[in-house]
Each structure stands twice: as C-alpha cells, then as structure tokens.
Design goal:
By secondary structure, the protein is mainly alpha-helical. It is 53% helix and 10% strand. It is built from nine helices and four strands; from the N terminus they run H-E-H-H-E-H-H-H-H-H-E-E-H. The strands form two sheets. It has a two-stranded antiparallel sheet. A hairpin with a 4-residue loop joins strand 3 and strand 4. Helix 5 packs across helix 6. The longest helix is centred in the C-terminal third of the chain and has 30 residues.
Amino acid sequence: MVPDVRAALSLTINRAPFFLYPQGFTASNQIPAPWGDRLDKLYGPASRPNLQRLGRQAGIEFNFDVIGSSTFDSHRLVLWSQQTSGKGEDVAAVLARFYFQEGRELADHANLRAAAAEAGIVEGVDEFLSSDVMVDEVKAAFNRSKAAGIDSIPVFIFSALNDTVNEVVHGSASPDQFRATLESIAKAAAERSAGTIADGMAAEL
C-alpha cells in the first residue's frame, strides 16, 4: 500500500549556498552574458522558451536579460535571516523575484536591505551586511556541496530518520520522480515507526 505522503511527512527546508561561478566575477563584479544567454549555451535554444512556458504556468515572468552579479552576500543574508528570525525562506523568495523577474543585482546591498524589509526584517540588517558574519558558514556549506559531487542546481536532498535515509533529486526531475522519492521516504519512516512500536510492545511482554 502506497503511504499518504502528506500525512506521513512533515518537511523542513534548509537551503545550502551554491555558486555556479565560484572563481568570482569580472572587474565590474558582473558576469558579461545575461543569464538567458548562458542558459541557451548550457542547455540549447529550446531551454529558454520551455522555461518561459513553465514560469508563466506558475505566474512567473522571467527576465532573461538580467546580468549576473556576486550572490555571496545574498546567501549570507538568507542564512542569517533564517537563524535570527526564521524568515530565511521569505527573504529567499523576495531575492528570487528581485533577480529573475525584476533584474536587480544581488550584489547591491540596497537590494538586499529592501528584500529583508519586505520579508519583515529591519533591525540589524545594515550592521550584518557590513560585517563578516556568516562568511565562514557560506563557504563551508558550498564546500560540502562540492564534496558531495553537486556541480549544478537546483538539487533537492531529502534527508530523514536522522540522515539514515538520503535521497537526491535534481530539479529537472519530473513531478512523478519527486512523488516517488517522497513516497519511498514515507514508507521508510512508516516501517521505522512500526518497528519502534513493535520493539516497545515486546519489551513490555
């Protein structure tokens, strides 16, 4: 019997920083080519209209002409926001809209302050951005991803049962693949739970 994924699982999202260009940027702190052009180069000319179609289905109008910039401080801000206020996901959502739809540079601290404010975070943002807080954490998280063999994003790592179950699904996977992964984890969790109950009953006999 296939377990009900929604009933069996409670998901907690933990973002991990990743850099497609860890070697840095040009002197102007920008990648010369817009991300749409880089998308075409990596995956072919059909990738842009396909992504445009999928984005519109989700209510997102992608701006493919955006020039890239360093995302290091934006990763710091997301981690710090999560740790201090639990609003890391809110900040990440605003940053994604700023970049992919509105074309704002993520290296610009004014944009980072605006993202934090929109997510409801005002206190301590300026001080944080001018410090080196979370610098080591971002570097360590990226190094862990590279050590795990992750060289492209998005990648979803589903960990459960104190990391005894780890399933990796790439962002290009189909909805059916995601569902199969979650069902597999739910089944493992249900079996572990049943085993724990059985052990407890045996101990009472």
